[in-house]
Amino acid sequence: MSFARGPMPDPQDFSRQPERALFARLNELGLAFTNVEHAPTHTVADSRAIKTGIEGGHTKNLFMKDKKGNLVLISAWADSELALNQLHKQIGAQRLSFTNADLLWEALAVTPGSVTGFALMHDDPPRIRFILDAKLLAFESLNFHPLRNDMTTSIAREDFLAFAIATGHDPETVDFTALAQPGAQH
What we know:
The protein is of the alpha/beta class. The chain has six helices and eight strands. It has helices at residues 19-28, 44-50, 87-91, 101-108, 157-166, 176-179, and strands spanning 33-37, 57-66, 71-77, 96-98, 128-133, 141-144, 151-156, 172-174. Strands 1, 2, 3, 4, 5, 6, 7 and 8 form an eight-stranded mixed β-sheet that branches.
């Protein structure tokens, strides 16, 4: 079971500085990263203009649960098209739905708009299935929010994979691009 986190903070209260624990963990693991501050973003569309100068694969992250209550974190390439009503079939799960803010906070210690693959560090012991879009593996560096949505942290692809494994999550790779093609098997 997860540890008690206390009440969910106001998502606009950036004084909490949750990125500090992440950056300390990345440093502890010897993983290099860069960080850029920017205006808060809540959607991929919000982030397009802000992140044009940041190279690498940009992500969109979905935290969902299936009909049986199993939790799934999906980190997809920002431009991948995910058919939400078919997503469960694509990843071999029961029908998926988005979680509420309380479960998001309890499981990953992030607020809505700040979902990120880096939040896996809070899933201890691991109970969340982690799905990584195969398209992201084509990029040398990956970009995620560092537990807050007014920053973007860039990390080498191999270093992010090492981070995920260090948190106890072996990413399952799914090619959402191929699955979205007409005639693809679901």
